[in-house]
Amino acid sequence: MRLSVIGCGYLGAVHAASMAKLGHDVVGIDVDQAKVNELAAGRAPFFEPGLPELLAESQATGRLKFSTDLADAAGADVHFVCVGTPQRKGEYAADLRFVDAAVAGLAPYLKPGNIVVGKSTVPVGTAARLADQLAEDAPGAVLAWNPEFLREGHAVQDTLSPDRFVYGVPDGAAGTAAVAALDEVYAAPLSTGTPRLTVDYATAELVKTAANSFLATKISFINAMAEVCEASGADVSALADAIGMDDRIGRKFLNAGVGFGGGCLPKDIRAFMARAGELGADQALTFLREVDAINMRRRSKVVEMTREICGGSLMGKRVTILGAAFKPESDDVRDSPALSAAAQMQLQGATVTVTDPEALQNAKGRFPELTYEPVTENALLNAHAVVLLTEWKEYRNLDPAATAALVTDTNIIDGRNVLDPAAWRTAGWTYRSMGRP
Ligand SMILES: NC(=O)c1ccc[n+]([C@@H]2O[C@H](COP(=O)([O-])OP(=O)(O)OC[C@H]3O[C@@H](n4cnc5c(N)ncnc54)[C@H](O)[C@@H]3O)[C@@H](O)[C@H]2O)c1
Ligand SMILES: O=c1ccn([C@@H]2O[C@H](COP(=O)(O)OP(=O)(O)O[C@H]3O[C@H](CO)[C@@H](O)[C@H](O)[C@H]3O)[C@@H](O)[C@H]2O)c(=O)[nH]1
After folding, report:
1. N or C of the chain: less Cβ packing under 10 Å?
2. Catalytic residues per the record (predicted)?
3. Which residue minimizes the CA distance to atom 2 of ligand 2?
4. Model pTM above 0.90
5. Using a 6 Å cutoff on CB, does residue 255 contact ligand 2?
């Protein structure tokens, strides 16, 4: 099939390359010329394991092209909308300008029977509004909403072998046509038995925001337990292991620490609260306000712990932060707990050096006031405190004795509960973690 993918960021670039891998002819469109140049040259404009190989492979077949000109999307049968829906400045609500612009820009190039497929995460009600707009601007084109559940760091695998497909489609013949088109696009993964659910627009939109809200709630639940563990001397990791053995609960997403960040969970729970308010259902989601508050408290908590381990003040202290990305295997620093805590420490008078294997360039753009050092050993030199905030493998595998030889004071805070407390203490470190004694 001929496909277009509008918006080639973390979602769209992986989607475009993966669809070409499935055998489709794909054109990826983005307004960012630098990003398109990189992609067109076969290079990934961000770090995502497996994406460079996929880009090279798909481009060698001639089935994957990139452009900044929406006119190049003309001729495609199915158009995927993958543009950003960030949090609006100073508000909780999602900024839908990019989605609106993408759909409006696409309309003149659509032919009757073309399918426009929204993949961006949007507030419930957006698809119905866009379908009305398309009915006027591009009669005969059909809108579907097909939310995406990929995780950064696993994006290629999640796209090619998802847990499920969710199709939000209109009633009647238009819906049948949209389902048939999406089934053809995803024929290969569907043939392996991947479940596929066909629902209305509102349900499809809500499946996505509900899933992210559930994941955020699970993380904040365990972080709330970590607060109680900190007050009582219990061990949150042992607690998570024990409750996670109950199949009804499950161990995944019960890792306590500095909390969740990224371009999805924080903004999605906020946009969901804002939308529920507009719908008069805000009471239903007041718990998400608490989920957000618990999460933000963890960032302040790690700053407080660093202050304590440094003797009560950060003034004049050298602090090394291990990790800048919001999670390992990603260079994404959007709403990164690590950088947020680092900036708070710097404001309290510390000289903060941040290291990360992939995210330093992005981090510099967001927090130019911090010091960045790509080589872990150099970043550790003469530190008064080391704070692990993104659990990259190389930080999990640090040798406590060798690390002790680099620093001024052997103080470490494990903000992701991934180090072995006994090994670090034996090597002479004052070791503290979040929710573990
Ligand atoms: N990142 C993820 O892991 C992930 C997973 C599932 C869903 N989502 C959702 O997918 C959407 C995109 O997220 P992302 O992380 O890829 O964002 P991103 O910021 O990395 O990418 C968005 C891209 O859209 C481009 N763009 C903006 N307006 C455009 C227009 N009018 N025409 C063409 N391109 C345009 C931008 O230049 C940018 O490259 C969001 O709604 C997000 O919530 C993201
Ligand atoms: O037990 C855990 C698990 C995760 N995290 C943190 O939670 C954040 C989000 O992690 P993850 O969900 O793995 O990353 P994303 O790539 O943001 O993926 C989420 O957001 C995407 C965009 O909507 C969805 O598609 C995915 O399904 C959803 O998992 C990160 O900061 C993690 O460090 C924890 O603190 N504890």
Report:
1. C
2. 264
3. 253
4. yes
5. yes
